[in-house]
Amino acid sequence: MVDAVAGPAGAPPVFEGVANTVAVLVLIIEFGMLRAGMYRAQVRLYAAQSLTVTALAVVVGVGRDIPELYVLAALSLAVKVIIVPVVDLRLLRGASMSIAGSGAMGVATEVLVALTLAGFGFFAVGALNIHSAVLSSAALGLSMSVVLVAFVLMIVRRDVVSQAMGFFSLENGVSLASLVVAAGMPLILEVAFLFDLLVAVVVFGLLMRVHHRRVRSLSTASIDRLRG
What we know:
The protein contains seven helices and no strands. By secondary structure, the protein is mainly alpha-helical.
C-alpha cells in the first residue's frame, strides 16, 4: 500500500494537486497586483497572496507531518496577512487611491513581459530537473515565476506602493520556494525571515509616508535622479 505521505515517487495525486493549485493561485494574484489601479486593491491582493502561502504551509505541514510549519503559518498569518496590510493602509491614509497609469509601459505590454518572464522562469527551473521530497518541481517553477513577476512589478511601476508591494510579494515567492525545497528548515531561520520582512515594512512605510508628504503624490517620477 502506498503511504499517504510518501516521497516524490509515490506522492498522492490529491496532496500534490492541492499544493500545485495553491502555487498557481499565488502566481495569479501576483498578476492581479501588476494590473491593480488602486493602492488599496494592491495591498489587499498582497494580503490574499500571503494568506494563500500560509495555507500552503498548513497543507505541507499536514501532508508531510512537519509541526513546525503550523507555527510558521500562524506567524505568517499575523505578520503578512494582518500587520503588514494594516500598517501600509494606515500610512497611506489621505493619499490618492489611484496608482493607475504609473507604469513605464502600457498595461498590456507589462502583462506580456511578465508572462514571458514567468514562462521562462517556470521552464528554466524544470530544465534543472530539481526534485524535492515535499512538493513537485512544478511548484518550484511556479515560485520562480512569482519572483520574476514581482521584479517586473517593482521595475515597471513608478509608484512607491507598487514597488513596496512588489518587494513584499517577492518574499512570498521565496517563501513558496522554501516550502518546496526546504520545508523542514529550522524554525528560527523562518522566523528570522519574517523579522527581515518587518524591517522592510518599516523602511518602505517611512519612505511612502515621507515621499507623499513632500510631493503630495505616490509617484516616484520626481526622485529618479539625485538632487543637490
